[in-house]
Amino acid sequence: MKSKLTVLSFLIVLLTTSYNSFSQNKTNESPEIKDIISKKRSFNSTFGFGYRIQLYNGNEQKARAFIARFKVEFPGNFSKLVYYAPEWKVQVGNYKTKLEADKDLIKFQEKFSGIIVIPMGK
Question: Which positions carry the signal peptide feature in this UniProt record (predicted)?
Answer without folding.
Answer: 1-23
